[in-house]
Amino acid sequence: xxxxxxxxxDAMKVSLETLLNIINHSNDTIVRGNAxxxxxxxxxxxxxxxxxxxxxQISPDDWVDEEDE
Length: 69
Fold this sequence. Notes:
There is one protein chain. The chain has 69 residues and is mainly α. It has helices at residues 5-25, 29-56. The longest helix is centred in the middle third of the chain and has 28 residues, at 29-56. The protein is elongated. The model has no long low-confidence stretch (mean pLDDT 84).
């Protein structure tokens, strides 16, 4: 099975919205806490992946060779 980027984006959006709804509407504090932790972990993972992509996009011309200095 092959997923398009739009399919993955839609699935992520639904997942995040579901976690937010659980956080905002659940009467069980443990469930709310677990949903908040899950949401935070997803956001941190997205942030880390975006930062990794930025590092990969640095061209070799951007590096300074210490021997040349």
